Amino acid sequence: MYTFSSKLKTFSLILMAVGLLGIGYGFLSAPKDIQAVEAILAADAHGSAHGAPAEAHATAEESHVATEAAHETHEVPVANKVADTVTEAHDSIQAPVVVAEPAHTSTEAHVAKSGDHKVDAHSEHQKHLEHVLHQLQNKPWAALYVACIFFMLVSLGVLAFYAIQQVAQSGWSPVLFRVMQGITAYLPVGSVIFFVILILCGLHFNHLFVWLDPEVVAHDKLIQAKSGYLNFPFWIIRAAIFLIGWNLYRYYSRKNCLAQDEAVDDSFYKKNFKMSAGFLVFFIVTESIMSWDWIMSVDPHWFSTLFGWYVFASFLVSGVTIICLVSLYLKSKGYLEYVNTSHIHDLAKFMFGFSVFWTYLWFSQFMLIWYANIPEEVTYFVTRIQLYNLPFFGAVVMNFVFPILILINTDFKRISWVLVMAGTVILLGHYIDFFNMIMPGTVGDQWFIGVSEIASVLFFLGLFIYVVFTALTKAPLLAKRNPFIEESKHFHY
Fold this sequence. Notes:
There is one protein chain. This protein has 18 helices and no strands. By secondary structure, the protein is mostly helical. Helix 10 runs antiparallel to helix 11 (267-294). Mean pLDDT is 86; it is low at 52-106.
């Protein structure tokens, strides 16, 4: 039986405490009204206005491009206001041009026209400030949402991988089943937290999903056309069905696996086989719909037929990586005596293979949309390339280039420190991948990796460690009566 070490437990509790403090700070430091937003924008504009006047036109041009890219996803970059300020400063340097009013022009009409123009400009300015306020208030919510969904889907990826091993009647993996079951113990905890966040979205505690705002829907014909599907009651019911279904399979499959240890025949194993086959059908349907509901609908004007597979590849490779890292840790502490370098090598091969699979889907989605150049589709990538250039292409390096260079070597797949390094980069890379999927549609150009983002990751990482390693203490780490356990114990090649 595994014993949860006091050092690791203390470490996980510290992560959660620090994370909670940072999350609280992120919410408290978010602007509360338009006046606070004006102060932030004024400070940004003041810093930018010190540039040379000759650069003003270039700044304005770049701002215009960014604004056009963000328009489809309701994003209005702060750079726009910075450019306006610089342009005004530039204009003020120009020599004034005096144009005489024609004698027949009505003074009253001119004043009225000027007044209407000022009212319209003021109204647009107020709307813009409200939009930026929503973006800045979204930032701590979005950071919490990204970390929450990432760790929950990692445990779901492990559950799907476990079900695949059951249906395939795999002979190499049964010695790792209890490790997989321990990791999936996080799924119920993560599901509850995530469901609460979804309810808070529906109660308008944030603006993560613009289609939940009746005012936005009233002025957006495209969202109105999707309102039969994108409405809060149907959306939250779907979420409840998905989460309950996944957790029911997780609960009963573990229960049957434990019962098989004491059984005199293979009846519980056969139950798990049939249940796993049914679950995989349920999973592949619900996973696709989940990706549309919880991630793609953040950008309700955009869609991709590959998106469900793309999200699946991202959290599946993350789940396999977690299995490898937890197994290496337990092995280093003297547990998992039957797990050898061949098992670790197989896990590393899956890490490598699913990284290539993710890259194939990333490129397929990007290339087809970019080449077709349809405005309502390509805007998704224009926004990310212009406003999220570093994380967008950085994710490709971390999730494809790095794993390819490291894990393509057969010998490296058996070296623990290499796998820990590669696994850490892969997990960080796929967190950035989820960051890229969610942040542009929620915070626009107001993004940066700050206290809220780091604190959210620390909290959920601490919670994940605590729940997983506590679950590992509840049952023996070897599934003794699995029909393939002897084959798995002596797995070598």
